[in-house]
Each structure stands twice: as C-alpha cells, then as structure tokens.
Amino acid sequence: MIRQTPHINRWLVPLSGGHDSRIIVNTLYKLGIRNVVCYTYGTKGNEQSVLSKQVAEALGFEWHFVEYSEQKWDQLHREGVLDNYLHFAFNGVSTPHLQDIPAVYELIHQGVIKNGDVFVPGHSLDLLAGCWLESGDLIDMGKPGALQRATQKWVGIKEPEFVPLNAIEKVFNSADISPLHFQEYFNWQEFRAKFVVNSIRGYEFFGFESRLPYWDKELVDFWLAIAPQDKIGRKVLFDAEKKGILVHALTGIPYAGKTPEKSIVKTLLRRLLPERIKNIMLRISGYKVRMNEGLNQIYAMKAHTVKEMLEPLEDFPRHARPYLQKFIDRQPGQVNYNHLTAMYTVRKHMDLWKN
Q1: In the chain, what are the domain boundaries?
Q2: Other C-beta atoms lying within 10 Å of the C-beta of residue 119
Q3: Given pLDDT bands bounded at 50, 70 and 90, which one contains residue 260?
Q4: pLDDT score for 293
Q5: CB within 8 A of 204, min separation 6: which ones?
Q6: Residue 278 has what pLDDT?
Q7: Among 287, 328, 325, 284, which Cα is nearest to 305's?
C-alpha cells in the first residue's frame, strides 16, 4: 500500500475505539510513517471517540472529532447532499453507507482534509479474523442447512412466503464452495461487498481515494490458511495483540464495543409483544435507538413517521410490504438506520424511475 502510493499527502484514518483501525495506525507508526491524520465522530463524549483520542495522542498523530446532531443530518438532507450520495452509492444493488458522510463533509469545509490525502479505513479485519464466525457455522448441514442458517442470520423478513430463499440459493450455486464455508462467503459477497466496503464510495463522492490494506491478497491468504475453529472469537488476533504486535504506547488503552448484558425482560417483551403494541409504546416513550455514532439521528428530522418517509407503500414490491409494515408507524429514530437507509434508497429510486 505504501509503495503503491508514493506521492500521497497524508493518510486519513477513521479511528474508532475498536481493534481494526487501531492496528492500522499501530502499523503505520511502526513503519515510521508520521503523516497521519485521525478522525472520529458521533455523539459528544461517546466511548468510541474517547478511546480514539487516547490512541491518536499516544502515537502523536493529529486527531479531530466531528459531533453529530439531528440538525447536521437535516442540513445535509436539505442541501441535497445525502440524496445525491444515495444515488451515487446505490447502483441498484448496494446499501449506501452514510456513517462517515457528515464527518468528511465537515472536515473538508474546515480545511482539515486536503487534496492528495488518502483514506485508510479498517475494513474488514473483523471478518477475516473470525469475528462473525460461530460454532454453528462450522457444522456441515449440507446445502439446505447452509441456506437456512444464512436466512436466519441475514434476512429480516420472518414470513416464510416472503423470504428471498431463491436469491440466497442463487448465491450459493454461483459460489462453488462447501456448505461449511457458505456463511463466511455470504458475509463477504453480500454484507461486505455491498455495504461495508461500499462505504469507500463516500470518499469517492467527495473526490478522494482510499486504500483497504486488510484486503491485500497476501493477508487474506494468511487468514484463509488458519483453521476456522481457531478463528472463532478472533482468538488468533487477540493472542497476537497480547504477544506484542502493538507498540508499547497502546498496550494500556482498552477497546470499545463490549456488548452489555441484555435484560431478560426486555428480550422477552421484544419477542412476545405484537408489533402494533410495540409501536404504540415507542410512540409514547419517544425512545430512539442509541448509538455511539448518533446514527439514529440520520432521518430524525426528515419525517414524523417511517410511513411518511416511504409512502406510497403500494409502490414497493409485494414481498417487501410485510417487512415495511413492522416499522411504518415508528419515528425514524426508532428504526435501525441501515434498514431505513435501504428502504429510503429504494423509495428515492422508485421516484426517479417514475419520472
């Protein structure tokens, strides 16, 4: 990556409190590279940003924080920036990744990001190292079992008659791999390529290049050579961190992202309560999805309800309507932002096709 980019101005690293981006800045530092600018974003004082700052300061790298708010997202909507980006990044197949857009937009206007800078996000060490692998993925249940497990893990539609099983089977048939490896393949082919890695379109949208060092073939081949059972829970990666791949200045800084214990009562209520009752409770409480990055704010001022954002619902394919029905009476900030972005993007493109 370094050799292929000899005339770079600076490396821009979206630095979170997690493992992947930390290893990026750690490696740049160990290579003697100091023209590095780190940035992070989200709600003020969030855990990710606090740890990001500690890491950047420990290495002596420039660091910036962009606070997200409903008003900033609304401004990008009103200026047409988000709709233009959705069109740019969708291409009829991908879910646009909005997470970085306000930060990059603001840092460009502040003069922090300059011509010749190149972005280096930490995608997708978590996948390669085994973060998404579960013991159930390593049980060879044949093709039917592999398709069923992929459906359970990745499809939000629960009504059997509307599950896109034929589309998932088409992915399987084109893969030419063992059912034992299908879960990782499906993650790579569908989630990584069409959402996570598609996030670099956000940098391209503003005219900048990016690099994905974790997708270097030599590194991918290394992880493929490790037995899947040894990667569950990212065991190899975490052992390497403990054994010294991090510079001394970073060894005492904790990581973000430990999942809090879920309330048994809340879990049962989510499973047992009818959607209509859940929607009424959400409207009364005003509860919003809480995220370090403030992504529940993206559409918060766009409309009062999801239905208002997406109507007329009759335009959506018949098999998608039961999925939409669960959310239409909720406020936008009460729905997973990735799901809402996918639905809103389809809505905007249906409007374009009409015209």
Answers
A1: 11-128+192-250, 264-291+299-350
A2: 24
A3: very low
A4: 79
A5: 88, 210
A6: 59
A7: 328
151-155-160-163 Cα dihedral, nearest 10 degrees:
-100
- As a dihedral over the C-alpha atoms of residue 278, residue 281, residue 283, residue 285, rounded to 10 degrees, the angle is -140
Q: Is the omega angle on the peptide bond into residue 312 within 30 degrees of 0, that is, cis?
A: yes
Q: What homologous superfamily does CATH list for 11-128+192-250?
A: HUPs (3.40.50.620)
Chain centre distance of CA 145: 27
Output the pLDDT for position 273.
Answer: 63
pLDDT tens per residue, range 73-114: 999 999 999 999 999 999 889 999 999 999 999 999 999 999
pLDDT attached to residue 286: 56
Query: Please, are residues 66 and 41 in contact by the beta-carbon 8 Å criterion?
Result: yes
Burial of residue 57, with CB atoms counted within 10 A of its CB: 0-12 exposed, 13-18 middle, 19 or more buried: middle
> What is the tens place of the pLDDT at every residue in 107-143?
999 999 999 999 999 999 999 999 999 999 988 889 9
Q: Where are any strands of DSSP class E within 148-236?
A: 209-210
Is 200 within 8 Å of 121 (Cβ atoms)? yes
Q: How distant is the alpha carbon of residue 140 from its chain centre?
A: 29
Q: Measured on CA atoms in the order 32, 33, 34, 39, is the torsion positive or negative?
A: negative
Hey, what are 179's tokens?
Answer: 């059912």
CB contact burial 152-177 (16+ within 10 A = b; e otherwise): eeeeeeeeeebbeeeebbeebeebee
The one-letter amino acid at 174:
S
pLDDT averaged over every residue in the chain = 89
pLDDT band, residue 283 (cuts 50/70/90) = low
- Cα–Cα distance measured from residue 240 to residue 295, given in angstroms and rounded to the nearest whole number: 32
* 11-14 sheet: strands from edge to edge: 62-67, 36-42, 11-14, 118-119, 209-210
Burial class for 293, CB neighbours closer than 10 Å (0-12, 13-18, 19+): buried
